[in-house]
TrEMBL record, chain A:
Species the sequence originates in: Methanogenium organophilum
Domain of life: Archaea
Matching InterPro entries: Ribosomal_protein_uL10, Ribosomal_uL10, Ribosomal_uL10-like_insert, Ribosomal_uL10-like_insert_sf, Ribosomal_uL10-like_sf, Ribosomal_uL10_arc
Protein name (Swiss-Prot/TrEMBL): Large ribosomal subunit protein uL10
Biological process, per Gene Ontology: cytoplasmic translation; ribosomal large subunit assembly
PANTHER family hit by this protein: 60S ACIDIC RIBOSOMAL PROTEIN P0 (PTHR45699), LARGE RIBOSOMAL SUBUNIT PROTEIN UL10 (PTHR45699:SF3)
Keywords, comma-separated and alphabetical: Ribonucleoprotein, Ribosomal protein, RNA-binding, rRNA-binding
Family, similarity comment: Belongs to the universal ribosomal protein uL10 family.
HAMAP family: Ribosomal_uL10_arch (MF_00280)
GO MF assignments: large ribosomal subunit rRNA binding; structural constituent of ribosome
Keyword Ribonucleoprotein: yes
Regions crossing the membrane: none
Job of this protein: Forms part of the ribosomal stalk, playing a central role in the interaction of the ribosome with GTP-bound translation factors.
Length: 282, 69, 69, 69, 69, 69, 69
């Protein structure tokens, strides 16, 4: 493989070596898609990742050379290279990295040819536009616009672009005029190689709410078990006592054990019974 | 209500709620018994499922307990 | 519950709830009276406002009624 | 309530709730035991399904009561 | 629960809930006492206002009853 | 509560909740294990249907405590 | 749920919930640990306020217990 790289000019060889050495240095090597990220956002994201991950943009051919030279299993990463890929290196685990990258996602204005990531809905109601040619622009793009009370209004709620459909030039123009930003832009992880295993985004998308709910559930179960089994801890002792006291009161009232603490309850019960019976005799 | 309570004393002790029995209980409590009320009570209770009436009311005391908190 | 009913017969008739009185009411009902329970009852009732206890219980059933039953 | 608690100590340990047993438990706690109260307790529990009684108290109304608070 | 009830016997009688006292009560009930459970109980009770915990039960005894159903 | 959680780790993994197992889990977590607490836990869980217990709302008083506020 | 419980063992003991720690706890319980589940857990919990979740459980244990059945 050294032979293979010797065909490359020095700067390319250096680049390949750099890719390899970073892959050896960090626990995780991943590919991210940079497609459609404007330069300004790109800078912000790099800043956000500083200290947590290394982002490296380079030529796909050099990436292929580099991983090809490293052999199995990491060379599998080459099959994920697609369009504008960049390399990302970190010591975070792939789930953590995926989460961090998700957090870098921002909503952007759509450009013609973009795919709607979800249904783009335009709500019914007035717009900020004064009557003018814009009504025609809206209408031509398929938006039910009209003039009412000196304002341009949308007459009814409209699914303007369906999820997965391409946004055409007219639609992109309307969305931009309405300041609707439907496109998710950010570093999207294509694959992560970590501790010998490849992780794809479908595996990495974790539902934090579910984890939260499970923690609540686990805590409840532990609490229930502790109280049920009368295992005293700082958290369970009070409910256990309350439970014991409640049981004792129940028994006392049920069996009419005339004890000072519960005699009022027994009286109350007797009086209600008498009332109920009286009600049935009237 | 003492007539009703007298009936409940009898019922709870597994005795029949008759005019004589009710009268005896009330008299023992030093109450001047009105025959007509005893008659009316016993007549009214005829066909009444006392057990059921009492069971219905049994639910409430727990609620009462909640109140003073 | 018959002991408490007996006490309530007395209370409702405006009589004092003493051991003797409770015993008399229960005996009149043909019940074999256990002295200890009478004692326990009278002791437990000492200082208790029966009227209030009845009122408290009466306040609760409205809630009970609200429950799905 | 300590008499009831004593009965529950015994019941929970699978022991019979007798006058002697209750007295022993209370005495071990350093309590001056009143025989009549022990007798009254044991008499009251006679024929009672303790398991069922501790669990009873009509669930629904109490929950309803808790809610509006 | 017998360990808890033993503690409540002591507390209700105005006695301190110590390991020795709990052990004595349980032993008097004929229970083979496990030291570790007594220790855990007494340790957990440290700093706990039993009165308050009991009062909480008074607030909703029926709810507690709902559980085992 | 970590002792209870340790028991639940074991139970959920289909393992028996023994003193040794609980101790191993806690020790692996870097916890200084108190033998008496482990013993108390295992004793308390003896005969308990954990599946059923975790699902049971044994915790009612806490709810009650929240309600009246 | 054993992965969650393992995390709670650590959290309750004041330890950090790291991949190594969770793996150690699970392994000690004799569980064949799946690395990816541990990783997912640690990543997910990184954004979860465990303290708050546990406090929430204490506030309404009864309700939640009903759900999972």
């Amino acid at each position: 493989m050294a032979l293979y790289t010797t065909h490359l000019p020095q700067w390319k060889q250096d680049e390949v070596e750099q890719i390899v050495s970073l892959a050896n240095e960090y626990r995780l090597t991943g590919l991210v898609d940079l497609h459609g990220i404007p330069a300004k956002q790109m800078q912000e994201m790099r800043r956000d990742l500083r200290g947590k991950a290394v982002l490296r943009m380079t030529r796909n051919t050099l990436v292929e050379h580099a991983f090809g030279s490293m052999g199995e299993p990491i060379d599998g990463i080459n099959s994920y290279i697609d369009g504008q890929s960049a390399l990302i290196y970190t010591n975070d685990n792939p789930f953590q990295l995926y989460k961090k990258l998700q957090q870098t996602m921002t909503k952007m204005v759509a450009r013609p040819g973009d795919i709607a990531p979800e249904d783009i809905v335009i709500e019914k109601g007035p717009t900020s536009f004064k009557p003018g040619p814009i009504v025609g622009v809206f209408q031509q793009a398929g938006l039910p616009a009209a003039i009412e009370g000196g304002k341009v209004v949308i007459r009814e709620r409209k699914v303007f672009v369906k999820a997965g459909e391409e946004i055409n030039a007219k639609q992109a123009d309307v969305l931009s005029k309405l300041d609707i930003r439907p496109i998710d832009v950010g570093l999207s992880l294509q694959v992560a190689f970590y501790d010998g295993t490849f992780y794809e985004p479908s595996t990495l998308a974790i539902d934090e709410t579910e984890y939260y709910n499970n923690v609540v559930l686990a805590a409840q179960q532990a609490f229930n078990l502790g109280v049920y089994a009368a295992y005293p801890t700082a958290q369970t002792i009070e409910p256990i006592i309350a439970k014991a006291a409640g049981e004792a009161r129940n028994l006392g009232v049920e069996a009419a054990i005339y004890s000072k603490d519960i005699v009022e309850l027994i009286i109350g019960r007797a009086s209600l019974q008498a009332k109920a019976l009286k009600g049935m005799t009237e | 209500m003492e007539y009703i309570y007298a009936a409940l004393v009898l019922h709870n002790a597994g005795k029949e709620v008759t005019e004589d029995a009710v009268t005896a209980v009330l008299a023992a409590a030093g109450i001047e018994v009105e025959d007509s009320r005893v008659k009316a009570l016993v007549a009214a209770l005829d066909g009444v499922d006392i057990e059921e009436a009492v069971a219905k009311a049994a639910a409430a005391p727990a609620v009462a307990a909640a109140a003073p908190a």
